[in-house]
Write a structure and sequence with these properties.
CATH class of one domain: Alpha Beta
CATH architecture of one domain: Alpha-Beta Complex
Number of helices: 10
Helix content: 10-25%
Length: 337
């Protein structure tokens, strides 16, 4: 059923105002074939969204649920989850079943269907490392399609779905994701904060790793229910080796992490803090006082206010470091002054 003029403020974790001209809550795959043509946007948990204003198309609110074991052998476990499943609940469920492998991604907000689009990652792991297949509805060809891990073209906060803009135009509507989890499990403690959190544990269990990740995230990130936010707002920029060398010559304590292709990933939060924006507000929005990477909405603001803050932070970081930060969230809606 298509609803008209639906308020989207409750459906984005920044709680920014805006309406959509048409709205459909997708609870069954059988609804896909009957969706009308025209501009569309697939909405999940709303945790990776900056609502700039009103949207003149159709918002498809993903609510497909279900998760089950597909296959298990002595090496791997294949598990499928519907796109509307809550991501953290899914991670906890896999652990409760004795299938570790996703624990480093615990407490990331949003839904399973968003994981491959953004190739969500945290604490030394990216979702793409565990994804075996993505199943979607091709609204143009009007049929179900499957993407292998290779066809997803995963990169840092990137995938084929972002490459072609399918996450913006609703061409490919992800319906479920298949994960390949290892039987032979070892804790991934490559991330420094996580290693420190578990320093006293000689052999931490998968659940213990998840609990440590949850504890770290809760210390660093505000609960959207109490302080609206979209989590880490900017991507960590990746620069070539020469640019990284020059920056570290000027700023020796700038965190820089070597990448497989020889480039370096820089810490955006550190750069924002050094540029003077940690804990600083611009009207109703600002950068969180405990984590400079998090944009928060303190109430009464609009998408325009948020975009002005984004530009101000980008300009400040670029002026100091010569690097232009890229926002992670999708910007949706016609900007309303």
């Amino acid at each position: 059923m298509i609803e008209r003029d639906v308020d989207l403020a409750p459906f984005n974790t920044l709680r920014l105002p805006g309406y959509t001209k048409r709205y459909c809550r997708l609870t069954a795959a059988s609804q896909l074939a009957g969706l009308p043509d025209g501009p569309r946007f697939v909405l999940g948990g709303g945790s990776n969204l900056l609502l700039a204003g009103n949207f003149e198309g159709l918002v498809i609110h993903m609510a497909l649920t279900g998760k089950h074991l597909l296959q298990a052998d002595h090496e791997t476990v294949l598990v499928e989850a519907a796109a509307g499943e809550n991501w953290h609940d899914f991670v906890e469920w896999t652990l409760s079943q004795g299938w570790p492998g996703l624990e480093n991604l615990a407490l990331i907000p949003g839904q399973v269907g968003a994981a491959p689009v953004q190739n969500i990652g945290a604490y030394g792991l990216e979702a793409g490392e565990r994804i075996a297949e993505v199943r979607a509805w091709d609204s143009q060809a009007r049929r179900e399609v499957h993407f292998s891990r290779a066809e997803c073209r995963f990169g840092y906060r990137h995938s084929v779905f972002k490459q072609h803009g399918w996450h913006l135009d609703g061409r490919m509507i992800i319906t479920s994701v298949v994960f390949r989890l290892p039987r032979e499990w070892r804790p991934n403690l490559a991330y420094a904060d996580l290693a420190r959190e578990l320093a006293a544990d000689v052999a931490p269990s998968p659940q213990r790793v998840a609990d440590a990740v949850i504890a770290i995230r809760r210390r660093k990130l505000p609960d959207p229910a109490h302080l609206p936010n979209a989590g880490s707002f900017f991507e960590n920029p990746i620069v070539d080796a020469e640019a990284a060398r020059k920056l570290q010559t000027r700023y020796p304590d700038l965190p820089a992490y070597a990448q497989p292709d020889g480039r370096f990933k820089l810490a955006a939060g550190w750069m924002i803090e050094r540029a003077g924006w940690k804990g600083r507000d611009l009207g109703a929005v600002g950068m969180y006082e405990k984590q400079a990477l998090v944009l928060v909405h303190r109430g009464g603001g609009t998408g325009v206010d948020a975009l002005r803050l984004v530009s101000a932070v980008q300009d400040a970081v670029e002026a100091m470091f010569g690097v232009r930060l890229k926002p992670e969230p999708v910007v949706l809606g016609r900007i309303l002054e």
